[in-house]
Amino acid sequence: MIKLKEIGVSLSKQVILEAINFSFADRGLYIIIGNNGSGKTTLLKTMCGIYKPTLGLVQYQNKDIHQLNHFERSTMISYTDNPFPLPAFINLTDYIQLGLDNQDDVEGVLDAIKIGHLRNKPVLEMSRGQQQKAMLAKLFYQDNPIWLMDEPTNYLDYPSILNFWEQIQKKAKEKLIICTIHNPEEAIKQDAQILILKNKSLHPLNNKVGLSEIIGHLTE
Amino acid sequence: MIKTIVIFGLLTVLLFTFDVLFGNGTFLFNQTDSFLIFQQFRLPRALSALAAGGMLSVSGLLMQNVFKNPLAGPDVLGISQGAALMVALTLLAGVGFGGIILAACLGAFFYLLLLVWASKYIKSSITLLLIGVMGGFIISAIISTLQVISQAEALKSYVIWSMGSFSKVEAIYAWIIFAFAPFILFFSMYFSKAFDTLLLGNQKAQLLGINSQKVFFIAIIITAIATGVSTAFCGPIAFVGLAAPHLCKWFLKTYKHQWLIPVSFFVGASMALLADILSGGIIGGFVLPLNATLSILAAPVIIYVIVKKTL
Fold first, then answer.
1. Any idea where the domains of chain A sit in the sequence?
2. CB contact B309 to A (< 8 Å)
3. What is the domain count for chain B?
4. Which strands make up the sheet holding A55-60, listed edge to edge?
5. Are A85 and B199 within 8 A, CB to CB?
6. Using an 8 Å Cβ cutoff, are B154 and B91 in contact?
7. What is the distance in angstroms between the CA of the first residue and the CA of the last residue of chain A?
8. What ipTM goes with this model?
9. Tell me, what CATH number does B273's domain have?
10. CA–CA distance, B83 with B85 (Å, rounded to integer)
11. A217 touches chain B (CB under 8 A)
12. pLDDT at residue B90, rounded to an integer
């Protein structure tokens, strides 16, 4: 269970997030919707330890995650935004395993993301969408209990987006997955708790929320 | 991969032998007192070329990794200039630091301390690289000023040192440089996995559990020692640290530092040995400045890298 306690974040003396209180369950899918500049990325970066909150704390298993060292955090929380920089001369299989001690083979995640045919291809020579999938495969392979994903469906084609959500729903039965998304139409199709980020704070919506209501929140 | 290491290792041994046998343009055993010449001149210069070239190349590889910049190198960071300043103070201003060697090591070390201190406040590695370059310019300006006010005799000995050479290293010091080489090689190879992960960027490496800041310090310490030691005895050696790692990546086409580090060492050593052979008098009996030969050898490599963008 990851808890946000009175989280406030300021970047370059600008207040981005203010007094956020929320508890995420141990497993399940949460989707955060918000307009450009609403602070979605800042929130995820604060939860994974890249940013330190100016006020308040992020707690996981009753420990302040900002007090843990890099290695301890790396075994609990994964975070993805974009795949760059990508090293030269590295193929997909090696890229997925780079920096991880996981001894399993990568076949399982290659199947899940449907990129088995790219296993020996250098990641630098892939299309942007394929690089996005390579990054997602690395996150699946890391297999941490908490996944924070900043706009994970960017650059994916339509069948890949459908496959992505199918895999995420499966994983959400055992993991806590928090995704940020722009598109409310994509969000309401998922079996997920939807949260709106606006006016520097986080607003949970009830489960039966309709599209028009979300659009109302975003455009008001 | 093992094959490539063996090939470059053999190339280094070959060039080393050639440098010992023909280092001054004359065959070793055609000279009288050939054993004395071998012991006092040929072996020291070949040893210092091998070790300095190899160490500078490894530190260039690490600098290019941690600064995320294909044009980073031990001389670009300003560490050689740091060493040069202290040597200039010793030789030109007559401020006693107990000889050139200690002065160069102290200079490299103080410059390193300054960089480490700066890196506590400046998180962007590119900003830090630019500060290193600018610091180098300031130091060069101070050295130029010192040259104006110094005695002709002192100026001469500084200019000779600053031209860089493997042929003026005394036997005992050559063995000292050589003794540092395996230390630099194994110390950097010990962290090869962390250097691999750091290719994903500081932030992603941290999310994978690597303490990027610590790896950054390690790379700087390795560079300071390698640059300090080789600059102290051989003077500033241009371009090896920049060009040799690129040649190595071009041959190996790998991201794995467990291969890149040893092969970079051998490529750098071969480059320095080749430059020493070419400038030693083998071409029509002319003794050429070492750094001029090195620049001619290395500059095309760097131009190739810039044009092709094969980092």
1. 79-143
2. no
3. 1
4. A14-24, A2-11, A55-60, A63-64
5. yes
6. yes
7. 32
8. 0.94
9. 1.10.3470.10
10. 5
11. no
12. 83
Closest-CA residue to A155 (of A133, A181, A126, A179): A133
Is residue B56 within 8 Å of B227, Cβ to Cβ? Answer: yes
Residues 6+ apart with CB under 8 A from B131: B118, B122
CA distance B23 to A167: 66
> Can you read off the two tokens belonging to residue B210?
């690597």
- Domain of B176 in residue numbering reads as 2-308
Q: Has residue B97 got a pLDDT over 60? A: no
Name the token pair of B213.
């800041």
* Beta-strand pair A2-11/A55-60: antiparallel
Q: Tens digits of per-residue pLDDT, B193-206?
A: 999 999 999 999 99
Pairs of residues, one from chain A and one from chain B, whose beta carbons lie less than 8 Å apart: 60
**A70 vs B206: CB contact, 8 Å cut-off?**
yes
**Adjacency order of strands within the sheet including A176-181:** A77-80, A146-150, A176-181, A28-33, A193-198, A201-204
Q: How big is chain A by its Cα radius of gyration, in Å?
A: 17
Mutant choice from A45, A50, A93, A98 vs B, greatest count of B C-beta within 10 A: A98
What's the predicted TM-score (pTM) here? 0.92
